[in-house]
């Protein structure tokens, strides 16, 4: 069993070691003297950086430090995600705060010699935004990418070693749990969460405190706390990053929730496609048990709580709360009609609350810093911050956390660094397959739950995909419908048949066979799906179509009336043609055409047989005379 | 209807005893079927009807229930996978950066469609939803190796590398 005194002792012993990573330069250097290490090197071990080879970077680093006899002076820490995934693998050296990007084992060897051994920063390997023209170096927090961010849910990601519980304790970890179980009643906790204005970060935006209050009010000797880590929205990866970078914050929040509603058991339902997150979460649960922070009589009180991890198996619908519970029960993950709501009759028919990972990541901070602090951030009806996974056609692909009310323009142009290759912004897609597209004319809208719904989209779990002028809006709607057709569980008719029919209509349009009345059919069908589907998957499946139809109707019309795809994406509407005046008859295109669709004699203009052409574009890439055009 | 290849079940006694161990471990756990199926797929690489029957007997539930769950989730496969498993991510971030063209290049190269396995059993191809490496979009996975910032032109070389490694054995 752990006492509060023991918890504080661990915190105080490790505090400086971790705090060095939050301060920089002079302050950090002073503090570094107390830690026993001259420098600390943090390497991102999140999925993004691991995929680009950060494990090789760490291996080389450790080997190289040993060769130079530095292994006792320099601490290597494998952290979670820093956020700037596009520049991975990322490595930061403290106390200087030097931000090295796109590391390779070769780079590391040079940095060990020149920087870590001799003290000279290797400027050419630094993230170039951090190097001034006069040669001085900026700290990470001063770069455009980080400056406008505010890290609450991600506060420990990229700071602590997620596989060491003591590093979490060093940054006040488990203090909130200690405070709750020793000095607050369940109702007081729920009041605090309610007052903070925290709303569910998984997509729905339901007030978290109210959800807890409903479950508290349900009479039952057994209740459950579930955590939804089945992040299914393609393009969203904030929950994964939190689990990889700060798994203990989720465990602590679930225990707090358990205490407040009177539950003793929690389940985390996590995607099996996230092996690193699953592994770190399991390590964290084991460590928490070992330290007595999960299990019987937590902090010597009567409160007992334990957590079990369940793996999902690749079904988007299991992100829906009742489907998730059905899946934990071992069945096909189909949603159930509500009421009864899970707070009354949920997992194994017992009162259950389900919170998303990012929601949980806010809980301990609300308890420690207070509801007033939390509700001072954000807009009138949406409090706190929101993490977005910024992806698509944007320079700084990665994870950003901003206060609610930040405009889309600030995210795209400042934090995101704009659109690469000089292309024009076309739309921002939020909410994934349940959300919609926001056009350039609404870039100045402050982002919160209600403003996004007013624009015909939704917050969703936080995927934010930027689309540029090369994206066809009809094609992107069809992409999402392909997804929902695949993922519809088939239990209710409006969703099962509706998504299929909607997809067929879109297919007809992208193939150039669309008619004007198809647009009316789409709108009519969408209306019925929204009003009569059993769960949110079907109710929101038409959103991508409706929002693009609203803001980009002219593109639909171009496909239907002119039989043209303005962005040049829809293959059936494309034609490759050879300009006879420019063609030299070199035969290169004919030899490379995989469909043998090009004929012609040597030194005479060639011709493409449109019936055979598969529109792959190989001819155009190969032509040395620019004689092939795409219409 | 297309002809479907029936693969003869080649499970060993050792695999069966491993499966029995997994079943024992989850037998009394509420909702234990999913972890058992996940364990079984790890042991056999896929879930043939013979394995499903063993699970049904072991957990004392009907085969139809096992089959219902096994076919509901995309993680579970009823047919064997290739020696090299190729997956092309079709999450949104990858899609807008041209993942469909990468998938097409792999399909052309191997002569199979997504969800199929080559006749020599060397490669199987799947399209997956987001693997979460959106910073590297578009992404292709071969077994557990991640290939980021893919172009259709790179496909040939990568697949040849695995094909050669297969020949050498």
Any descriptors?
heterodimer, A: 631 residues, alpha/beta, five-stranded mixed beta sheet, four-stranded mixed beta sheet, 17 strands, globular, B: 169 residues, alpha+beta, 7 helices
Helicity of chain A, as a percent range: 40-55%
Q: What integer value in Å does the Rg of chain A equal?
A: 27 Å
Given the C-alpha coordinates, what overall shape of chain B results? elongated
| Low-confidence blocks of residues of chain A | none
Topology of this protein?
The complex is a heterodimer of chains A (631) and B (169).
Chain A: H1 4-19, H2 25-32, E1 39-44, H3 47-51, H4 54-67, E2 74-79, E3 91-94, E4 98-100, H5 105-117, H6 144-147, H7 165-170, H8 175-183, H9 186-196, H10 208-217, E5 224-229, H11 238-245, H12 247-261, E6 265-270, H13 275-290, E7 306-311, H14 321-328, E8 352-356, H15 357-369, H16 371-375, E9 385-392, E10 398-403, H17 408-415, E11 425-430, E12 436-439, H18 449-454, E13 463-468, H19 473-487, H20 493-510, H21 516-532, H22 536-540, H23 543-551, H24 553-560, E14 576-578, H25 588-592, E15 598-599, E16 607-608, H26 618-622, E17 628-630
Parallel strand pairs in A: 1-2, 5-6, 5-8, 6-7, 9-13
Antiparallel strand pairs in A: 1-3, 3-4, 9-10, 11-12, 11-13, 14-17, 15-16
Helix pairs in contact in A: 4-5, 8-12, 8-15, 9-10, 9-12, 11-13, 12-15, 19-20, 19-23, 20-21, 21-23, 23-24
Chain B: H1 13-26, H2 33-44, H3 49-59, H4 63-72, E1 84-89, H5 92-96, H6 99-110, E2 123-128, E3 140-142, E4 145-147, H7 155-168
Parallel strand pairs in B: 1-2
Antiparallel strand pairs in B: 1-3, 3-4
């Amino acid at each position: 069993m752990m006492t509060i005194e023991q918890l504080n002792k661990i915190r105080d012993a490790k505090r400086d070691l971790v705090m060095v990573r939050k301060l920089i330069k002079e302050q950090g250097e002073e503090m570094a003297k107390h830690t026993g290490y001259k420098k600390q090197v943090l390497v991102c071990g999140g999925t993004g950086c691991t995929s680009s080879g950060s494990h090789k970077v760490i291996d080389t680093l450790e080997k190289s430090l040993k060769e130079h006899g530095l292994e006792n002076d320099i601490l290597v820490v494998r952290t979670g995600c820093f956020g700037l995934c596009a520049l991975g693998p990322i490595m930061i050296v403290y106390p200087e705060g030097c931000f090295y990007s796109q590391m390779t084992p070769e780079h590391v060897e040079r940095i060990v010699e020149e920087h870590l051994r001799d003290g000279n920063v290797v400027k050419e390997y630094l993230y170039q935004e951090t190097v001034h023209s006069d040669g001085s170096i900026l700290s990470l927090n001063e770069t455009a990418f980080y400056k406008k961010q505010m890290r609450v849910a991600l506060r420990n990601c990229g700071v602590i070693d997620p596989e060491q519980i003591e590093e979490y304790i060093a940054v006040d970890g488990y203090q909130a749990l200690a405070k709750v179980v020793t000095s607050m009643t369940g109702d007081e906790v729920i009041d605090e969460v309610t007052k903070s204005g925290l709303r569910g970060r998984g997509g729905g935006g339901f007030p978290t405190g109210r959800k807890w209050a409903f479950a508290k009010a349900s009479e039952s000797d057994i209740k459950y706390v579930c955590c939804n880590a089945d992040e299914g929205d393609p393009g969203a990866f904030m929950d994964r990053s939190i689990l990889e970078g700060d798994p203990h914050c989720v465990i602590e929040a679930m225990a707090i929730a358990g205490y407040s509603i009177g539950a003793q058991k929690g389940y985390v339902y996590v995607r099996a496609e996230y092996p690193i997150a699953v592994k770190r979460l399991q390590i964290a649960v084991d460590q928490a048990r070992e330290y007595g922070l999960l299990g019987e009589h937590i902090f010597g009180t009567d409160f007992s709580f334990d957590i079990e991890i369940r793996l999902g198996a690749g079904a988007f619908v299991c992100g829906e709360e009742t489907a998730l519970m059905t899946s934990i029960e071992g069945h096909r993950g189909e949603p159930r009609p509500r009421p009864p709501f899970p707070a009354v009759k949920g997992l194994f028919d017992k009162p259950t609350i389900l919170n998303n990972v990012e929601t949980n990541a806010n809980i301990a901070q609300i308890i420690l810093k207070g509801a007033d602090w939390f509700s001072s951030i954000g807009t009138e009806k949406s409090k706190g911050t929101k993490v977005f996974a910024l992806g698509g056609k944007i320079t700084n692909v990665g994870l950003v956390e901003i206060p609610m009310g930040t405009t889309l323009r600030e995210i795209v142009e400042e934090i995101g660094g704009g659109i690469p290759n000089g292309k024009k912004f076309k739309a921002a897609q939020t909410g994934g397959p349940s959300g919609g597209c926001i056009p350039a004319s609404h870039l100045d809208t402050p982002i919160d739950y209600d403003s996004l719904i007013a624009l015909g989209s939704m917050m969703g779990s936080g995927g934010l995909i930027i689309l540029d002028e090369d994206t066809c809006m009809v094609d992107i709607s069809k992409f999402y419908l392909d997804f929902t057709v695949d993922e519809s569980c088939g239990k209710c008719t409006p969703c099962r048949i509706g998504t299929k029919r909607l997809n067929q209509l879109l297919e007809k349009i992208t193939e150039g066979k669309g008619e004007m009345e198809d647009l009316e059919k789409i709108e009519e069908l969408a209306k019925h799906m929204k009003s009569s589907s059993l769960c949110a998957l079907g109710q929101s499946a038409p959103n991508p179509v409706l929002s693009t139809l609203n803001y980009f109707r002219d593109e639909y019309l171009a496909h239907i009336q002119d039989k043209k795809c303005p962005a040049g994406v829809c293959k059936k509407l494309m034609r490759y043609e050879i300009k006879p005046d420019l063609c030299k008859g070199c035969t290169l295109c004919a030899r490379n055409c995989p469909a043998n669709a090009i004929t012609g004699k040597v030194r005479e203009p060639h011709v493409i047989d449109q019936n055979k052409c598969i529109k792959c574009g190989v001819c155009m890439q190969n032509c040395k005379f620019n004689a092939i055009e795409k219409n | 209807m297309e002809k479907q290849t029936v693969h003869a079940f080649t499970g060993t006694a050792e695999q069966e005893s491993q499966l029995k161990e997994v079943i024992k471990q989850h037998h009394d756990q509420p909702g234990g079927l999913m972890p058992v199926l996940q364990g079984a797929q790890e042991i056999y690489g896929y879930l043939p009807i013979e394995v499903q029957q063993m699970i049904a007997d072991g957990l004392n539930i009907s085969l139809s229930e096992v089959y219902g769950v096994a076919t509901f989730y995309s993680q579970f496969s009823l047919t064997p996978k290739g020696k090299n498993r190729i997956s092309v991510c079709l999450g949104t971030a990858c899609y807008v950066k041209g993942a469909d063209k990468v998938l097409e290049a792999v399909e052309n190269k191997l002569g199979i469609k997504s969800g199929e396995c080559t006749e020599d059993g060397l490669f199987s191809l799947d399209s997956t939803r987001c693997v979460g490496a959106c910073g590297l979009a578009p992404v292709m996975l071969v077994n557990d190796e991640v290939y980021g910032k893919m172009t259709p032109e790179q496909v040939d070389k990568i697949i040849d590398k695995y094909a050669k490694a297969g020949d050498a054995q």
